[in-house]
Amino acid sequence: MAASPSTVVAPALSDALLAHQSLNESGNATILFIHDAFGDSDDWDLVVPYLSNYHVLLPDSPGRGRSSHLSFSIESSAEHIVRLIAAKAVAGRAHVVGHSLGTSTAICLAINFPDAMLSTFV
Q: Known InterPro entries for this protein (predicted)?
């Protein structure tokens, strides 16, 4: 992938870093992809080239990839990701795609933070 990873500090958890890749930042809308339990943001490398019209956010879930190692729960992962959406997504909202365990996080986002969502694909 052409972009290098960046990090964002979760506002309520200042010691926690949620690493992510942010691609095509001039895109019309944001699509955020949530990987499975044992993956990281690089799992989406084959998908990204088809999304050149979109801003793409690829977070490493807490404790995975380049993110800080934290105790994990679906709810805390959703809280970290909604902060990322608020900080980085176009207009503070995103289409969210989840794979495997990422679907649980995406559903948790949709239930608890519907205003941050444009759509959910699980």
A: AB_hydrolase_1, AB_hydrolase_fold, AB_hydrolase_sf
